[in-house]
Amino acid sequence: MEDKVVVNKKVVLKHYIPDGPATESDMELVATDTLRLRLPPGSTAVLVKNLYLSCDPYMRSRMTKHDEPSYVDDLVPGTPITGYGVCKVLDSGHPDFKIGDYVWGITGWEEYSLMTSTEGLFKINHTDVPLSYYTGILGMPGFTAYVGFYEIGSPKKGERVFISAASGAVGQLVGQFAKLMGCYVVGSAGSDEKVNLLKNKFGFDEAFNYKKEPDLNKALRRCFPEGIDIYFENVGGAMLEAVLRNMRLNGRIAACGMISQYNVERPEGVNHLFAIVTKRIRMQGFIVFDHFRSYREFEEKVVQYIKEGKIVYVEDIAEGLENAPAALVGLFAGRNVGKQLVIIARE
Ligand SMILES: NC(=O)c1ccc[n+]([C@@H]2O[C@H](COP(=O)([O-])OP(=O)(O)OC[C@H]3O[C@@H](n4cnc5c(N)ncnc54)[C@H](OP(=O)(O)O)[C@@H]3O)[C@@H](O)[C@H]2O)c1
């Protein structure tokens, strides 16, 4: 390997931001640091070239300074933003990773990263599917869909499943898993283009544009005249309230996320919570990190589904590190159509 020193461009958080919307100008691209593309003798680190970066909603929370520890660490202003990504190993002192391997896990929003901890770093076993899939369908969001639907949702054939933010990185996959299981599946999304994808690409039975529905309760009653067995919750707020009114007896709510609340100054209240009691609903939150021990089982199953054409996946790809902040912020305005990722380099 050539021993060279490069200027390592990176995107940093400029400052902590208070509750409320994050903007592109809270982040900046800097090109001041240099990095030697070879590890010193005796190092146990892994040096990688970043290829694809994942934009995920939870990253917003990390931009605010928390007084109490949060479920994810706060970012550190002035240092590269960290998040999931797909990388190529350039040098390694770690026995599990060798030069030329492709890996996915937590990396930096920069061209090259030096990983001193390899906890949560997965070697990519299948390079005959697009590597970018390891930011989405075969990475953290895909595994979230798998855990949330099968483990938390406890689905049965023929049940009625509702998914919010249904065309996104997680939602599109939940819907396809539910169809493979023989469920009746409905999704909500924020544009007609996304609704079209749900019905005509991902095979949902029904879908609606929640921004065009004057009454979410009525929209759900229209799609589920007999009620909802499983709600895959991505959004929270008014949608959760409407869902509670339409759940069936012994229904399950897999509480995956509540994106409508991530950028607000004051969290919204939710009415009709008593339905959880009267309808014997099990509402359970989950965090994907707690389940990574079954990742390999998921990876094998979903790679097979992809190869057999049983599952498709839509990505929204931004080009270049300099466009990463806009791509991340766009998640909260619904600008992404499918899984939002950023290409830094192809090889
Ligand atoms: N529990 C876990 O371990 C875990 C892991 C991964 C993700 N998650 C959660 O899963 C959910 C989906 O994540 P994802 O990665 O798949 O994102 P995504 O759906 O690909 O992108 C976010 C989407 O959320 C919708 N949205 C944004 N602001 C909204 C608002 N105010 N009200 C309603 N919808 C809004 C937009 O779609 P529309 O155009 O349809 O509005 C946007 O495209 C998020 O809540 C995320 O936090 C949880």
How would you explain this protein's 3D organization?
- With 347 residues, the protein is α/β, with parallel strands linked by helices.
- Helix content is 21%, strand content 26%.
- It is built from eight helices and 17 strands.
- Strands 5, 6, 7, 8, 9, 16 and 17 form a seven-stranded mixed beta sheet that branches.
- It starts with a strand and ends with a strand.
- The mean pLDDT is 97.
- The structure holds NADP nicotinamide-adenine-dinucleotide phosphate (NAP).
- NADP nicotinamide-adenine-dinucleotide phosphate (NAP) binds next to helix 1 and strand 17.
In brief, what are we looking at here?
By secondary structure, this protein is α/β, with parallel strands linked by helices. The protein is built from 8 helices and 17 strands.
**Class by helix and strand content?**
alpha/beta
Q: What percentage of residues falls in helices of 4 or more residues? A: 10-25%
Number of helices: 8
Main sheet? 7 strands, mixed
Rg, nearest Å:
21 Å
What overall geometry do the principal axes of the alpha carbons give? globular
CATH architecture of the largest domain: Alpha-Beta Complex
CATH homologous superfamily identity of the largest domain: Medium-chain alcohol dehydrogenases, catalytic domain
Strand content: 25-35%
**Uncertain spans:** none
Mean pLDDT: 97
The count of β-strands is 17
What is the first-to-last residue Cα distance?
A: 15 Å
Order of helices and strands: EEEEEEEEEHEHEHEHEHEHEHEHE
Number of domains: 2
Name the bound molecules. NADP nicotinamide-adenine-dinucleotide phosphate
The CATH topology of the largest domain is Quinone Oxidoreductase, Chain A, domain 1
CATH class of the largest domain: Alpha Beta
